[in-house]
Amino acid sequence: MRWNKITVIGVGLLGGSLGLAIKRHKLAREVAGFVRRPASLKDCEQAGAVDYASTDLLAAVSNADLVVLCTPLAQMRPLMKQMLPALKRGALVTDVGSVKASVVRELETMVSKAGGHFVGSHPMAGAENTGMAWARTNLYEGAACVVTPTRRTNKAALRKVEQFWKSVGGRVLRLSPEKHDALVSRSSHLPHVVAATLASCILAPSQPKSQAALCANGFRDTTRIASGSPEMWRDIAVANRRQLRAALDGFVRELQQVQAILRRARTEEITRFFEIAKQRRDRWCSRTASPSPE
Description:
CATH topology of the largest domain: Rossmann fold
Mean pLDDT: 93
Strand content: 5-15%
C-alpha cells in the first residue's frame, strides 16, 4: 500500500534508515522528519531520508497517515503528548522501541483518545553506531519485526502496520508486549549488559597496561555493542529492569555452573560445555536470515 504522508520522529540510525527505505520502495507520497537540532535539518534532507525535516513537531506530524517514533524510549511519551493536537483522526502511530509493555501501556490510550490507532513495533535491527550518518537503506531487510497488539488493537490498523514492515523488508512476528519484553531481555538486553561489563572490567584503569594490547578480535567482537548509545541503553534497562534482572539471574547461574566445571577440571565436561554452545549457535545461524549487507 502507498501512504499519503509518513512522519518519522527522530531521524537517526533507525529513523534515517527507515526514511531511506520508505523512499526507495516508494511507500509514501511525502516523508517528513522531526529532529531536535536545527543542525540536523540539512543532513536529513541531503541524505535523502526525508522530503523535508523540521524542528516543529506539530508541523511534521500534521496530516500524517502514519507516524513512527524512532526516539529513545524516555522521549516517546512526552513527544506523543505534544503531538496529539496535530494528530490526524484515524492516523496510525507505531514505534521502534526495544521495550514494549510500558510503551504500549502509555501510548495506546493517549493515541486512542486523540482518534488514532497505536500499534507497538520493534524491528530487531540496529548497530552500535548512531546518527543519520550511519543510516542505510537496507537496514530492515531480513530483520525480524515484532508487532505487539493488545485486546484493544484495531485489526485494520494492525494489518497496515504489519504490511508496512514487510514493505521495508522485515519478517513480521506477533507477540504480546509482555512476551516480547521477556524474550528480548535475554536475546538483546542481556548481551548488551554482558558486553558493557566486559568492556568496563577488562579495560579498567586498574588493569595492567599490557592488558588492552592483548585484547584482539575476539574481545572486539564480543564487546562491539558496548559502544552503543548510553542514553538509549539506560532507557531500555530502566524500562525492562524486571525482565532484565531475571535474565541476569539466569546467566549468573549458568556462569556458576561453568565455575563448577572448571573446579572439577574434568576435560570431558569442559569439552562438552563448548560443544553444546557451538552446536546451538551453529544451528541458530543456519536457520536465521541475517540482514542484508550494505
